[in-house]
Amino acid sequence: MNMQYKIMIGTILVVMLLFGVNGCMSKELKNALNNEDAQVVSQLVQNDPDDISGASLKNYTLRGLELHDLTITNVDMYNLDLQGAKLTNVTFEDCTLTGVDFSSSEFHNVRFMDTTLEPIGTTRYDVKETTFKNSLLDKVGFGDGSKLLDVLLHSLAKGSSLAIVDCTIEVVVEGHSYVFYDSYLENLLIDRTNVEEGVALSLAIFGAENVIIKNSSLTNVDFYGVQAKNLLIQNNQDTLLRVGGEFENVKIVENNDSRIVLNGAITTVYASDNGGGNSGVSLRGDISKVLVKDGSGLGVSFARGVMKTVEVFNCDNMRYLELKSVVIDELKLITLDAEEINSTETVIKKIIYRKCSVEREQLGRKDYN
Questions:
Q1: Is residue 29 within a helix (H) or strand (E), and if so which, with residue range?
Q2: 312: left (phi > 0), else alpha (psi -120 to 50), else beta?
Q3: How far apart are CA 349 and CA 328, in angstroms?
Q4: Cα-Cα-Cα-Cα dihedral of 275, 277, 278, 283, to 10°?
Q5: pLDDT digit string (tens) for 175-229?
Q6: Cα(342)–Cα(304) distance, rounded to whole angstroms?
Q7: Mean pLDDT across the chain, nearest whole number?
């Protein structure tokens, strides 16, 4: 291959890189976008999804866009008004969505893979978030390294279910940290995800069947106002997570170097195999039944709680057992040792105490079984 031919090939490649953005898009699709004709855009993209691949779409209003059974690849979307969209069996792959408005839309079996969802602006005065406000997100997933940066999943409609797997959730603009707000969610899964400091995952989630947070790291994160039948917090690392709400069944298991704070109206709490570092489990609120077992180096607090039955079983080298201002009908302490116990202003109606290396007087009572 002579030098002149090599130069020609190189020039062609450079031109393709420089002008590939929208450069290969059909004339029909360009015209439909410029005319902001959502119906025609829907038809053209539906017929040929590759026509939009690699495109940069900016400042378009395409309300009522409808797509199904296709993959959108490597598309940059900036300041798009896509309110009222209806997407079914659609995958966004390697895309960037900046300030995209999906309000009042319907999503059924939609996936965002290796995709960044982010706001326009860097301050609370100029921010425009990517939002799904008032939308139905039916079996929607974010995964494969996706980033949710100040994304608003507010006022989601009944029937919504979400999976956030292998992602990062992060605050970009101070004061825009509520991911979920006043939303109905049947199921929520957060798995293998880093939730960075300052994120408030929830301020009201209603009617959930299952909320699962596992295999993740949540740094100083609030998760309040949750109503769910089942809550599972499992195998998280280096986590400080504060949870509040109403639950029937809560399981806190196999978390390492993590502090979990749970407060609310709860039927049963089961905490097992938590420990390491400065790990702690803090339970407060109105709780019917609590079992904490098989923890090592764990700090446990029931301070200011009102509980019917509490059992702490087989916990070695407990850093502390906090019972301050707690009201417990029946407390069982079996096979444990604790460095420190605080039982100030404690009301415990009945205590069962066996194989414990702590002094009974530390519990502030004399009438033990």
A1: helix 27-34
A2: beta
A3: 6
A4: -10
A5: 667 899 999 999 999 999 999 988 888 878 999 999 999 999 999 899 999 999 9
A6: 12
A7: 90
Chain position carrying tokens 């209603």: 206
**CA–CA separation, 244 and 54 (whole Å):** 43
pLDDT of residue 310: 97
> Which tokens sit at 103?
């309000």
Residues of the chain with pLDDT > 70, as a percent, come to 90
pLDDT (tens digit, 9 = 90+) per residue, 128-148? 999 999 999 999 999 999 999
Tokens of 19: 């002008």
What is the enclosing helix (H) or strand (E) of 352?
Answer: strand 347-356
pTM of the full structure: 0.90
With beta carbons less than 8 A apart as the criterion, state whether 329 and 309 touch: yes
Rounded distance, CA 260 to CA 280, Å? 6
Taking 70 as the threshold, does the pLDDT of residue 19 lie above it?
no
Q: In angstroms, rounded to a whole number, what is the distance separating the alpha carbons of residues 73 and 82?
A: 18
User: What secondary structure does DSSP assign to 268-282, as a single string?
Assistant: EEEEES-BSTT-EEE
Query: Domain residue spans in the chain?
Result: 50-363
Contact 161, 142 (CB under 8 A): no
Asked if 53 contacts 78 with a C-beta cutoff of 8 angstroms, the reply is no
Write phi, then psi, for 16 (nearest 5 degrees).
Answer: -65, -40
Burial call 288-312: b when 16+ CB within 10 Å, e when fewer? ebbebbbbebbbbbbbebbbebbeb
Q: How many other C-beta atoms are found inside a 10 Å radius of the C-beta of residue 1?
A: 6
Residue linked to tokens 């009944």: 158
Tell me the per-residue pLDDT of 41-78, one tens digit each, with 9 for 90 and over: 999 999 999 999 999 999 999 999 999 999 999 999 99
Q: Return the percentage of the chain with pLDDT > 90, whole number.
A: 75
CA 137 to CA 90: how far, in whole Å? 12
Query: Which residues does 322 contact at the CB level (< 8 Å), separation at least 6?
Result: 282, 299, 300, 301, 302, 303, 341, 342
Count CA atoms closer than 13 A to 197's CA, side-chain side. 2
H or E element at residue 341: strand 341-342
Indicate the SS3 state at residue 362: helix
Cα angle value 227/229/234 (rounded, 5°): 95
Confidence tier at 16 by pLDDT (50, 70, 90): very low
